[in-house]
Amino acid sequence: MAMVDGTRELEQLTEDGAAPIGWDGRSAREMLEESERLFAETGRYHGLDDLALKAGDPIGYEKLFSRLRGGLVTARETALNISASPIVKEIGELCFALYTPEGDSVALSTGIIVHVHTMSDAIKYMVRQGYEENPGIRPGDIFCNNDAMIGDVHNADVQTIVPIFWEGELVGWAGGVTHEIDIGAKTPGSVPIGPISRFEDGIDLPAKKIGSDDELWRDHVLAGLKGTRTPMYWTLDERTRLAGCHMVREAVERVILEDGLDTYKRFVREVIEDGRRSFRSRIKEMTVPGRYRAPGFTELTFGKEEQLPSYARRDGMMHAPVEIRITRDGVFELDYEGASSWGYHSANCAPSAMQGAVWVQMTQTLICNDKVNDGAYFGMRTNFPPGTWANHSNPQASTGNAWFFLIPSFTGFIKSISRALQARGFVEEVLAPYGLTANAFQGGGIDQYGNQSATTNFGLSCVGGGAKMVLDGLDYAAAMWNPEGDMGDMEMWELIEPFLYIGQRVKPNTAGPGRHRGGSGYEALRLAWKTPFYEMQNIGNGRVFIQAGLWGGYPAAPLYRHNVRNTDFLELVERRAPYPVHEPDPADSELARAVKGDHQFDIETVTLPEVMRQGDLYLCPFRGAAGLGDPLERPYESVMSDVDGDHLLPRYTESIYGVVPGDPDGTERRRTELREERGSKAVPAREWMKEERQRILGHDMIEPVQRMYAESMRLSERWAEEFRSFWELPEGFDFPVATPEVDLALQMRSAAGTEG
Amino acid sequence: MSLDSQTLRDLVEERLPRGQVRAIQSAHKDPDRFDQYLALLQERVGWDEPIVLPFGEHLHIVAKGAGRYVVKCDCGHEFCEYTDNWKLESLIHVRDTEEALREIYPEKMHGDPRWNVLREYFCPGCKTLLEVEAVPPGYPVIHDFVPDLEGFYEEWLGRELPG
Q1: What is the pLDDT of residue A482?
Q2: Overall domain count for chain A
């Protein structure tokens, strides 16, 4: 703290309305406008032509970056110890980043780096909205944001942002984000499934000033205690973010003290331009220019939920027509033209969330070795059409569970990058699509201590990883949104949740088959314990494969729910009778046979909360990931090893892989037969297309699918034209379904002047 | 780090220990990888047309001369021009019933075929499964990848597109 105390004296506190806080007598907004103008005019960050600092002292330049980066990582590793939330403290759902005065990220810590660009959006919002004049941006101020329309993914990701001053000038911003275990939404948890409008998303802090002189304002602290079902976690998480931001500020002050302000100012400009150039180089080194497509899908099934209003009570399918274009000059373009409409549910996204997802995927694929900062953002172009779920543009829409469709949709991103990597020969980098981080074991009620509480169990941060070209996928160890997959300790979850773990083990057949299979998911069987009521949700895919694998690899399995209420489980225990600890095969379920009670055993995997009580059972299955390559090419030994390791039910060795257990030679013969059977069962694609065309002309598909197509066509003339053209449909062909959300989206587009 | 041709072959043929694969993943990427990989693939196929771009497992874009570039399978089957969708010239099998899906996935783990189906695309020559799509009924056949061959060779690699 000595450094911070010492530098405090150097700051020239300005009075509100006094001299501008930006560089060279300008306001922060003037700096941002100039930065954007220079980029638009030159295509280079801040118009920088040469990287003089880097060229003149390359070692010093690298040391400077490392010191700032080290300061950020240290801040994260130290500050997380303040938190009591297992999501933050054990899983590491936090990160810190350093920004320029205009809000562009310079460097970041490890952790949930999805938020590096979301916080950038939040800072730019404050700068553009004139916060410098009102409410003022002064040394020691503290700001907080969790508004996705401003810059975030969803409300549960809460950001603390502090300005960094030096001699009266704003030299940058430190930002920190943590994922809250409960956000006080309509339904408990951090990815609430209940909200159908923004007004139900929970604590709402749209870029608010919440403190001054390095202290949180009391009114904010007191309000926080009332805003969530888990006030202790909320309070300590906020202290975590603030302490981390102050550590980042100290690291910056140390650099400026030792290297001088001019060097620091030059460095932050150069390192972002360096990041932009580095990103473009990586694109040219590792990919191939061209057009890539990989649409993703998921379901939202609320037709059964009688407590919802009629306009939200329906089943829907969401479409993400992911298209990536890499131009000859190395620009990466991501296009969601034709995406489904926004809707009355919590799975809508704002552009900031989309950029966040781009970030976390890029940093795990193309720019994992380079200087990671907003330079990559400046090397991309995106199209997230207004009115779609990918850019809802509706000031009243909910984003509480934005991840629910972000995750399936970005499987198309990783799949497309992998095609490019293979085309360049970088086979060691190729990855099939990852697993959906579900089921979310999430709920709230009275816990085992008699207290009101809520939870979001982050066992979901360890689902299957996609198959690789040279290895199988990671088993139960990965989450697309956090590069450090960690399921936490069962003992910790049992401390905070009124549910005991009866068993937790690998779930067979969750992985997508292939020459290399995807990583397997796992399952936990939980027993409600010492709770009079705890309302539990199910969140995952049950009807829809989110994305197929690569080059003959199959998709990961959609899963199901198996919850049992009013059970005789405790009587079985009392009698010392055998009881199930898992459910390896739902077609042969000991849980269904041995435990009496009211079984919900079906593919209803998106449900609003329903009460569970002591003795009830909740099976929580976590998804696997997609496979890669023709399964008939998987080595005999690998298939048998899958059976031995409970990754594959024995009856599937032959139907998927053509393997005859115990008979490698017979396996080869069987595989030859299966190839011949393929030839007799399959038909020329163009013949099949004629039949499929008739099906479309006759609208021969269920209503949710028809509505999915209708939404995409009505929101995008380009997509509609391509759909009609592919199937040679009559001009003006459409589906006979109402799309009221599209009508509203088009009206809002018209009002905002963003048609087309 | 530049991989020698034997190490690349061992990587592709999965004979390297995991630690070495990990080291290759973390190392700087070798600038000559593309040419080394092309040479390795060319050596493994039983035909002579030059491969100009790897196109997924088993598929390649090859130069046919006179400015024609087609999608060709390991087995020798030729699909179509590389700018067209090879899937339209393939054999297809659609798993759109619970019975068909249960050959791959257990009960309650195969989704609902009214919502989406699995389309399997096979090579007409060798019957290898080349791609699977998981899409709702009626979705257009996905055109996965259309490379800009000319741009790649002339502007990125700095040489003429062969053939």
Answers
A1: 85
A2: 3
d(CA A220, CA A199): 19
- Give the count of beta carbons closer than 10 Å to the beta carbon of residue A513: 33
**Biggest alpha carbon–alpha carbon distance for chain B:** 54
Number of structural domains (chain B) is: 1
Residue B49 lies in a domain: no
Beta-carbon separation of A551 and B87 below 8 A: no
Asked if A491 and A602 sit in the same domain, the reply is yes
B31 belongs to a structural domain:
yes
Same domain, A493 and A596: yes
What is the pTM assigned to this prediction?
A: 0.96
For residue range A56-89, list pLDDT tens digits in order.
Answer: 999 999 999 999 999 999 999 999 999 988 889 8
Q: Which two tokens stand for residue A599?
A: 């079984």
Nearest chain B residue to A728 by CA distance is: B140
Instruction: Give B45→chain A minimum CA distance, Å.
Output: 16
Q: What three-state secondary structure class fits A668?
A: helix
| Rounded CA separation A456/A294 (Å) | 31
Domain-embedded: residue B73: no
Residues A485 and A464: their CA atoms lie apart, in Å, by 10
- Residue A638 maps to a domain: no
A737, two tokens: 């379904």
Between the CA of residue A340 and those of A318, A548, A741, A750, B143, what are the distances in Å?
Answer: 6, 19, 10, 18, 20
Q: Which two tokens stand for residue A401?
A: 């569970």
DSSP 8-state assignment for residue A401: T
Q: Are residues A696 and A570 in the same domain?
A: no
Residue B56 near chain A (CB below 8 Å): yes
Instruction: Name the pLDDT band for A756 (thresholds 50, 70, 90).
Output: low
- Closest CA in chain A for residue B154: A328
**One-letter amino acid for residue A754 of the chain:** T
Range of the domain at A715: 685-752
Touching A: B residues 89-148, CB under 8 Å: 89-94, 103-112, 114-116, 118, 120-122, 124, 126-148
Tell me which residue range forms the domain holding B10. 1-44
- A446-490: per-residue pLDDT in tens? 999 999 999 999 999 999 999 999 999 999 999 998 888 889 999
Closest residue in A to B28 (Cα) is: A369
Partner residue facing A317 (CB), from B24, B29, B136: B136
Does residue A316 share a domain with residue A205?
A: no
Looking at the structure, do residues A595 and A700 belong to the same domain, yes or no? no
A737 domain residue, yes or no = yes
In a domain, A600, yes or no: yes
Amino acid at position A566, single letter = N
